[in-house]
Structure formats: C-alpha cells, structure tokens
Amino acid sequence: MLRTAHWDDWTLDDLLAAKGATRVSLVVPARNEAATVGDVVTRVREALVETVALLDEIVVVDSDSTDATYDVAVDAGAVVHRSSEIRPDLGTRPGKGEAMWKSLFVTTGDVLVFMDADLLDWDTHFVPGLLGPLLTEPRVSLVKGFYERPMLDGEGGGPLDGGRVTELVARPVLALDYPELAGLVQPLAGEWAVRRSLFENLSVPTGYAVELAALIDTLATHGPDAIAQVDLGRRSHGHQALLDLGAMATQILAAVHARQGRPVPDGVTLRQYRSRDGAIVPSERAVPLGERPPAVSA
User: Fold this and answer.
1) Less crowded by CB within 10 Å, the N or C end of the chain?
2) Extents of the domains making up the chain
3) With contact defined as beta carbons under 8 Å apart, do 14 and 136 qualify?
4) Could you tell me how far CA 167 lies from the centroid of its own chain?
5) What fold, for 3-297?
6) Secondary element (H or E) of residue 212
7) Residue 111: what are its φ and ψ, rounded to 5°?
8) Is the CB of residue 15 less than 8 Å from the CB of residue 132?
9) CA distance 54 to 111
10) Per-residue pLDDT tens for 26-48?
11) What is the residue-averaged pLDDT of the chain?
C-alpha cells in the first residue's frame, strides 16, 4: 500500500521546521502558456517565497513557446530559461520531459517540485502538500499529487473524468506490469516532487511520459516505500481532442517498452484517421520517443 496523505496533514510551520537547510526549487515547464503562467508564478511567489520562505527559487523553463510565455513569466517574478539555451552543447529536443531534464542544470534545490503552467481552479497549497512527505519522511524520494479533475466544458461525467490517457493506457499498464503502483490515483499528474539525488540519476523521456517513467524507475531502484501520494483537492482543466491524446499514449507505451528492455526507436509515425468531405482519410503525425540519459552523466 503506497503511503497516502492529504495536503493539510502538515502546517506551514511544520514544513518550515522540517525544511531546515534543505533547498527547494519550484520548476514550471511551459509551452505557449502566456494566459496562465503569470498567475501560477505570482501566486506561488507571494504565498511561498515572500510571505513564507518555503521555496528558495521559482524557475520557469520555456519549451519553444511562440507566444509571450517567457516575458509573462519574467514579469511575474520567475527566473526564466529557454530550454533550447540550457546546456546548448547537449542540443535540444521538443517536449515537456526535455524541459524538466534541462531544469537540473539551472536549479539549486535539493528537492524539485514540478507544476504545470496551465493550472486552473487551483491553490498554492499544492506546493506544501507535495513537499510534506519529502521534508518529513527520509525514506520518501518521489511524491505524486492527485485531485479531482472535472472537465471545464462540462463534458465529463464525474470528478475524475479528466484523465483519459490515465484510464485507457497508464492504469491498465500498471495493473498488468507494475501492480505495486496500482494504488496511484493519478500516475500522470503534472504536479509532483522529487529529490534531486533521485531525479538526476534517472533516464528521462523527452516527451509526455516523464511522470510514468520516473515512477517505474523509482520503484525498480528504491522500492515502493520511496513513493508517496498526496490528495491536493481539485484541479479543473480543458478538454483535449481525442486524436491529440494518441501521441501522448504512444509516448507512454514507448517508455514502458524501454523499461522492459524492448527496443524503442527515436520516433514513430502515428497514423490516425479523420472524416473529410464524406471520406475517411489518413492523417499522420511524427511522435518523438527519445530519452535523455541521467543528468549526472551529461
């Protein structure tokens, strides 16, 4: 049974006392999130840097945005880096996982907290909630958040309906191949925290699969006692088109295959089908599947 807690199991005073000399970095990977990243940075900075010194730095890693994400994040008070400009000697690849891996070269925290830049209907307690097990339980190395995820557009039928890739891909994979992780409510949640000493030693998929890969690798190297999850309450989100989820599902399965010793190419062509003028026609998209090696070796 995975260790499970609620975000308010610790007070801020509890966490500050437990933090001691531990440095904590908040990392926000962002791509074309100018509409929301400013609010995320501003609210966390005011609550957890200026009012209570729980965070030592807020770092936004801009992943090839074509909008004003970079400028908005700077104006909100974050340290902002373009992913492509971090360790240019290593080259650059598209994807959320790439931004998270690159963050290891521009942050100083002993603990890294990851939050998505597109948060809606959330509160700053997400951060202390994720930090609770890491600051108070030495055996815990990775913490996943979970929450109700109702659809903003009202199309979902319940509070957990916002995780179609989770329910149709990730959860069946865990049930079949990694039953020790079946107790995770939201294995793909973008809000999670990890010790640097663990994350810098993991291979990191450059795309969408970073969260599931980190869980599987942590289980393999540290066992289930190193993983905890925290109920963060509620987070609403928008509805993504079904075909757009196909690329995410492909990256999830590729990361699992890699961890089972099966060969995985650097990318595949995903063929899907659409209706156009009364005919069914193929639509192809390139899906990158590469991984970065442990940052300690880069």
Assistant:
1) N
2) 3-297
3) yes
4) 17
5) Spore Coat Polysaccharide Biosynthesis Protein SpsA; Chain A (3.90.550)
6) helix 210-222
7) -125, 135
8) yes
9) 11
10) 999 999 999 999 999 999 999 99
11) 93
